[in-house]
């Protein structure tokens, strides 16, 4: 019973993992911001900004880097030894 109560207070990841995970969320959000824009006010005209470098190459690259950082944050192991509260 005592072990069950101790496990309730233990976080799944270390503080550093959560910080890295927040950075990855920020990178993913930045990629969506980079993809946004290029509205066309006149529907009969073609807008070349849809195929800009930022939307075609930069935004997906930042997105996949953010996903990679999130995977790293999940798999990163904390090297500090756990303290027993006995």
Automatic annotation (TrEMBL):
The chain crosses the membrane at residues 18-36, 56-75. It comes from the Bacteria. Keywords: Membrane, Transmembrane, Transmembrane helix. Pfam families: DUF3098. This is DUF3098 domain-containing protein. The lineage of its organism: Bacteria, Pseudomonadati, Bacteroidota, Flavobacteriia, Flavobacteriales.
